[in-house]
Write the structure tokens for this entry.
Amino acid sequence: MNCEIIAVGDEVLTGDIVNTNAREIAAGLEDAGVRVRRQIVTSDNPAEIRQTLAEAFDRSDVILTIGGLGPTYDDITRESAAEQMGVPLVRDPETERRIREYFTATGRELTDNNWRQAMIPEGGEALVNLNGTAPGIWLEKNGKILVQLPGPPRECLPIFRESVLPRLRERTGQKRVTRSVRIFGIPEAAAESRLHDRMTASRNPVIAPYVKDGEVEIRLRAWADTEEAAYALTEAPAREIAAEFGDHAYSLNGESLSEVLVRTLRENGLHATAAESCTGGMVTAAITSVAGASEVFDGGVCSYANAVKAGLLGVSEETLREHGAVSEACAAEMARGVRKLMRADLAVSVTGIAGPGGGTPEKPVGTVCFGVSTPDGEYTLTRHYRSQGSSVRESNRTRSALEAQFQLLLAARRLGKKQ
Amino acid sequence: MNCEIIAVGDEVLTGDIVNTNAREIAAGLEDAGVRVRRQIVTSDNPAEIRQTLAEAFDRSDVILTIGGLGPTYDDITRESAAEQMGVPLVRDPETERRIREYFTATGRELTDNNWRQAMIPEGGEALVNLNGTAPGIWLEKNGKILVQLPGPPRECLPIFRESVLPRLRERTGQKRVTRSVRIFGIPEAAAESRLHDRMTASRNPVIAPYVKDGEVEIRLRAWADTEEAAYALTEAPAREIAAEFGDHAYSLNGESLSEVLVRTLRENGLHATAAESCTGGMVTAAITSVAGASEVFDGGVCSYANAVKAGLLGVSEETLREHGAVSEACAAEMARGVRKLMRADLAVSVTGIAGPGGGTPEKPVGTVCFGVSTPDGEYTLTRHYRSQGSSVRESNRTRSALEAQFQLLLAARRLGKKQ
């Protein structure tokens, strides 16, 4: 069963907005066993819509349109699709009722145009839209399936997940599952090299590496008759790959680094804190993005200026004078200082040169020092990031914030083992 | 002149990655005066590529392909496009030289396949790729223009900006410019209502509202013979719209709220700080994302637990007991405390319930209190966010972080006027 995804709308066509709906829908279709054959973006122009739909109906089994379900006279996506399926549009009483209720509840004025949104193809189903007025549409006829979804993501995606995917899953033979092993601190080339033979040999699951923000994500993708069977195919390979990378493989089930860190701290009854300079609060922001962070985190310090490193964290003037703020000596004192201040078990510090300015020959942009302070001891390390492109600053900060969390995770595991 | 954008690649087609190249390319084309007629995503399958290209060549003046320029035998995008243009592929000596250099410099092994990337259509130009081996391709023939770009964004977009857009701009009549007035703290419905008549009446520029993270962006889009003339058309309307919203319209030229805040602080010689609870460091992270923040920012505190609010910022036990951490009383003391601690001119505090848990009938999820402390006085305010969807926590945190920065901006302007 193959499908074409047709997004209708000048906003997407002319680059005002990114076609994010299409990505999730394409992945969802493939997971459900429907092969995506083509994706198209067409303008709101009626002639273009008609032509695009006619071509799609010739080629594919499932035609899924996104957008173009507005109430105005030139929103002809509904009409064109019904025409291709060879049926007229008819009024859906349940949808009419919902539209009436929606306008009453929000105190808005109903115009004649709004009733157009209650029209669905004869023999089709209106798929409930809890976040807007236009229902989704499902019609199966003569070996074709027509799916129509409203454009705004907050309307489109819930209808797709809740009403479209279940129907499609019932009709397809194979299901697809994707699972990731997330690896921090191993360069992509090294990861690929160590996994090369396995990746080449493995057909089901297919195994491929993806790089993002200095992390390597190993994606395992498997097909089987059911989702459960497909997921089971990923189990052994995922564990073997994780074992290959030890502590660096921090997640096999989709958890982010922050989620794994917070969970690990909680499981070991530990509190962590952070003193940040160049990352400016990104580490503590990441930790607190996880619900339940309050069980493992009480607070942190952004010590951007030397005066604050000295005054609040106790970094010595001597260290600042002799080694500078961007040094392992300073990082050590920052970590020690914030750990004491917050009465935490573990602390990490970050001090570096995010760029684009501020670099020197001795300490170029991308030089970042980290300190870790625990009851059992302290250590420091330095990274030298070589980020490229227009967002050197953000890239260096992002990678530093991940490194800081990773170091906390390693320290938490070590401490946890001793308990 | 109209264009079709064809992205080649299973990764985009099946939803592994978002088609971000297409958004920037479509917007760039429209700015250059080329109308985007259709966007297509096709698989790596040779037959699909051939068919898609044939159809595009029938319909449009400019055919722009993204991806499919790899070195392996089934990367037939180059061949198919040259076929459509009626020319053979020929080896480009300069590209061969670059490929040889690239492999020598990176110590990688050259295979026969790699030379395929030096093939360009006869009569065409190889567009230099500084970030990879496959050059872009430009060919003009018989009223058609063929543009081919490599898939990875860091290769594709520089070639598009530096080599393709200038060539296209020379060939088109009209240029398009987009400019935004960014408005904080006005609900979308109110902004649309106030601008309704203006938006309906204005044809050039076209004026339309976009909402993101609780901000309203009024986009003005103008067309003229030159970019300068188009930009000039936006000048008066942009200023008038900004004047309509006073302080709420914080930017007319693309600056983000953080950038405007840092610039305003710097222009007025002021230092700011922040004490954050639920935002966890997002405010200080945003301020420090702006290069030059060290001139206006020394540090901040993430006081997540009550003990830290009390111990480090001096929030009284009485306040915490009687009003709780999420209260204007607590926000006032947090702001006062961090301002003193950091010896800043201005301070903002944020304390609230980001969710999804933690809400009560008196203080539901989305209740966030802010405090502002300045030499001239203090004030507090409460917001009640009603975020929906799966990321309530992130939505509440993001909106709170923006509100905090906006309050600092208002305070900075007020203080600045008095100087």
